[in-house]
Amino acid sequence: MIDLLPPDLSQAHAIFLLAVSFATSLMTAALGIGGGAIFLAVAAVILPPVALIPVHGVVQLGSNAVRATMFRSHILRSALPAFTIGALIGVAIGGSVAVSLPPATVQIGIGLFLLWVVLGKTPAWIGKWPIGAGAFSSFLTMFFGATGPFVAAYVKAMQLDRHTHVATHAALMTVQHGLKVAMFAALGFGFAPWALFIAGLIICGAAGTWVGKHVLGRMSDHGFHKVLNVLLILIALRLLWGGISTFL
What we know:
The structure is a single chain. The chain is mainly alpha-helical. It contains 10 helices and no strands. The protein has helices at 11-31, 35-46, 49-70, 80-98, 103-119, 130-144, 148-156, 162-186, 195-215, 224-247. The longest helix has 25 residues, at 162-186. The protein is globular and about 45 Å long.
């Protein structure tokens, strides 16, 4: 198995990330949000900073594409065109500067972003301006990866039922991550050494999505978000410490 792993990734870390991919996909399918940020936070501690956002993007592309396919009959397709136009703009602008960031800056940026996701407030206009929502969230995803909360705010403004919310959110995130991955490929990131491991992460994510689909609406949200927030804050502080220590 070690021969199939990308450089600088141990077998124990690989198995752990496969389990995290399953668990976070189950979480997102059942609760509508949260899995992408948790997977990013955990992966940020394990993966090389230069590979973090591109690899996370492919995994989230696969996870959201599977979820969108499973819930395809519930997708609100009218939400896609304007958001896609905005996403193209945001990815193009973000891609022009994302690859020049040093690894320590990426760690600090993701740490601050996770703290903001937990403690901050998503701008109200995100839910009312689809092109702006697509552009702003897609610009951020080139640096920080897990912009699901911004897209969720846009979807929430539509006041959809639970299944349509999950399905539409998955479709929009598939568009965003697909464009991001294409941009990183165009910028020269080498996905080949990571291909088999990414495939394993996507398969585990698909299994988690399948399980999550069957518990959708049955799982209580009570206490979940408190635990999620505490975990994200702890991981964010760990990333900030690592990035700042590098500079010092």
